[in-house]
Amino acid sequence: MDKNLLLQDVLAHLQADLEQATLAALSAHETATHEENVAENKYDTLGLEAAYLASGQARRVEELRQTLITWRQLRPRPFDETQGIELGALVQLAAENGHEQWLFLGPPGASMKLQLADQCIQVLGNTAPLGKLLLGKKPGDEISLPVGSRQQVFEVLAAT
């Protein structure tokens, strides 16, 4: 699997999310500042509510911008056995029940599922609990992730 194609797919999804969030923020701002939403009395809170929404939407746009900047700086490299799993790694895990999955480890903020060829790949940030556990691991290593009151054990099958 080509990690650079995965990265381009992540960037395209983040860009689309940013564009959608920007439109939502503009719409919320227009609603908050529209003359029909000026409060007529102290109980008329539509304009205030719209302003809170616009503020939240603006924060979301900025978060997406920062995530996009961070992901654009990612340069996936071939797996280095001496370094172990690091940002940009494509990792195959097996759960105790035999279920296998592929993960693409990157910076925070881009949790999504991608389809490459016939394979489903979970994009995971390095600050997610599983992402933290994977850093520095090598094929053959086991990791244990607390899930509720029990531990879920995974084996690293492969890393590229």
From TrEMBL:
Checking InterPro entries in the record gives: GreA/GreB_C_sf (IPR036953), Tscrpt_elong_fac_GreA/B_fam (IPR023459)
Q: Which organism is it from?
A: Ectopseudomonas composti
Q: What is this protein called?
A: Elongation factor GreAB
Q: Which UniProt keywords apply?
A: Elongation factor, Protein biosynthesis
Q: What is the lineage of its organism?
A: Bacteria, Pseudomonadati, Pseudomonadota, Gammaproteobacteria, Pseudomonadales
A GO molecular function assigned to this protein is: translation elongation factor activity
Spans traversing the lipid bilayer? none
Q: Name one GO biological process term.
A: regulation of DNA-templated transcription elongation
Q: Does the keyword Protein biosynthesis apply?
A: yes
